[in-house]
Amino acid sequence: MGFGDLFLVALEPVLKVLIITGVGSFLALKRIDLLGPSARHHLNNIVYYVFGPAMVASYLAETITMESLLQLWFMPVNILLTFVIGSILAWMLNKIARTPQHLRGLVVGCCSAGNLGNLLLIIIPGVCNESNSPFGDPSLCTASGNAYVSLSMAIGGIYIWSYVYIIMRISINKNINPDKSGENVESSPREISGSSTESSTEPLLPSVVCESNSTVVQLPHEESSEKVSVGCRFKQKIRGFMGEINLKMLFAPSTIAAIFGFTIGTVPLLRNAVIGDDAPLRVVESSIYLLGEACIPALTLIIGANLLKGLRSSGVGAMVVLGIILVRYVALPLIGIVVIKAARSLGLVGADSLYQFILMLQFALPPAMSVGTITQLFEAGQSECSIVMLWSYAVSAFSLTLWSAFFMWLVA
């Protein structure tokens, strides 16, 4: 199969995403106002608390077994590599572009966290169902693809709401609470929860208690670094980092749903009771699956509505936006090819071409929309995030098609 045929195979699912995204942008126009700020807020909550967890739980329960989980062990490592390598490239971009402090966490989030959920759930079935798909029988391809994408979505959500959330929270807090000559300034980022307006009141950098034998010494922040031991400074950094961890975010609804899905899928007794045409509780699984099917169109409409904000926003430099695009669509995909080829040669990845394709594609996806959700939670960097998302997703229509075709050509 030639590259031109593979390009056409990769183009159709991307066009589906663009069409639904365009509908979302149209519904967000002031003349229509069906997806205005209030509607987006409520729809986003429904996706976050209902549709998303239902999709994760149903897909994982149906497609993941203990055997498949052991075979797919490299995927969590691969996703972690995308986050780590993206963060390193983001750090370099922040240094080169001299990104303002309050936007550095946003740059790290956009460079490290890819859209590992709904985009793959549209692209992979679309590729499998093409008549000239290089991945064989459409039904087998779709079943295997759903298993791979479900695991990708679950692992990606855990990384986003732990690693990326903490990085962005630290960056925003540093901008809100600069250390001014020993003043104890308290942070107040907006926490998650529907209508809650409570603010976090713990100090950003808590003082560290260092113990030496039986003597306890309290070290204030304004004390010079020369008077503080290396071990004490390390404790201070660790406590500051641990103070940023939000267990409520770490155990987000999608994470809890992933745990339930893994449990049902990998425990034979539960799997036989819930999954299958003869399962006594199959109506429960089918109901959850029906709810989960609404996640992809709803979330894609929200993406389109949020991208419209980018046309009306300003405040982020062109160099930062261009840098994020180069990181996500040039540097990361090239590094991803090297990583997967090396893993394949070392026997860490099997011969399944669809599996290799998805592993490579994880390096070439646009930024995760959850990054925008995090900026909304802290009410900081929202307009800048809209600009980044607008241009990133506009460019992804071309880059994702080209990289998908090239990856298929490599693995087919």
Please indicate the percent range of residues in DSSP E strands (runs of 2 or more).
under 5%
Helix count from the secondary structure assignment? 17
Q: Give the overall form.
A: globular
**How far do the termini sit from each other?**
9 Å
- Major beta sheet, strand line-up: 1-2
Helical content class: 55-70%
Q: Could you say what the CATH architecture of the largest domain is?
A: Up-down Bundle
Count of domain modules: 2
Tell me the CATH topology of the largest domain: Na+/H+ antiporter like fold
CATH class category label of the largest domain: Mainly Alpha
Query: Main beta sheet, described?
Result: 2 strands, antiparallel
**Helices and strands, in N-to-C order?**
HHHHHHHEEHHHHHHHHHH
Structural class: mainly alpha
Number of strands: 2
Give Rg in angstroms: 23 Å
Query: How much is the average pLDDT?
Result: 79
- Which residues sit in consecutive blocks of at least 5 with pLDDT less than 50? 180-217, 219-226
Function: Involved in cellular auxin homeostasis by regulating auxin metabolism. Regulates intracellular auxin accumulation at the endoplasmic reticulum and thus auxin availability for nuclear auxin signaling.
Region (Disordered): 179-204
Transmembrane segments: 6-29, 41-61, 73-93, 105-127, 147-168, 245-267, 287-308, 320-342, 354-378, 390-411
Membrane topology: Multi-pass membrane protein
Give a verbal description of the structure.
- Belongs to the auxin efflux carrier (TC 2.A.69.2) family.
- Residues 186-204 have a biased composition (Low complexity).
- Pfam families: Mem_trans.
- Keywords: Auxin signaling pathway, Endoplasmic reticulum, Membrane, Transmembrane, Transmembrane helix, Transport.
- This protein has 17 helices and 2 strands.
- It is mainly α and 412 residues long.
- The protein has 2 domains: 3-176 and 247-411, Up-down Bundle (Na+/H+ antiporter like fold), CATH 1.20.1530.20; 208-237, no CATH class.
- Strands 1-2 form a two-stranded antiparallel sheet.
- Strand 1 (208-212) and strand 2 (215-219) form a beta hairpin.
- The longest helix has 39 residues, at 138-176.
